[in-house]
Amino acid sequence: MKRMKIRALMCLFFAIVMVVYAWDRLPLNGQGLEKVFALSWLSFAGLVIGGNIVAIARRGRKSTQAKQEVDNARAVKRARQFG
Q1: How far apart, in whole angstroms, are the C-alpha atoms of residue 77 and residue 83?
Q2: What is the rounded CA–CA span in Å between residue 24 and residue 62?
Q3: Is the pTM of this model over 0.70?
Q4: φ, ψ for residue 32 (rounded to 5)?
């Protein structure tokens, strides 16, 4: 589980680096197809960045839920032993 979080962090980092590097090189003031390409590239980069942020946020939530489920299972097992 920890590997997936590290992978998402690395992908997020590389996506941000790519956007920073490409920002000056994208023809945002161009006309026609140049501008369509630049805006579509930025929108796909935004989707990649957003998806990695969501993956990181969900990974943290799932690990706490998994810990709670394990704790609940242990509590039920203990209650059965003494019951």
Answers
A1: 10
A2: 38
A3: no
A4: 65, -125
As a whole number of angstroms, the distance between CA 55 and CA 5 comes to: 8
Among the listed residues 17, 3, 19, the one whose alpha carbon sits nearest the alpha carbon of residue 55: 3
Higher pLDDT, 4 or 24: 24
Instruction: Give the side-chain half-sphere CA count within 13 A for 14.
Output: 7
* Helices and strands of the chain, counted as H and E runs: 2, 0
| C-alpha–C-alpha distance, residues 25 and 37, integer Å | 12
**Cβ within 8 Å of residue 36, ≥6 positions away:** none
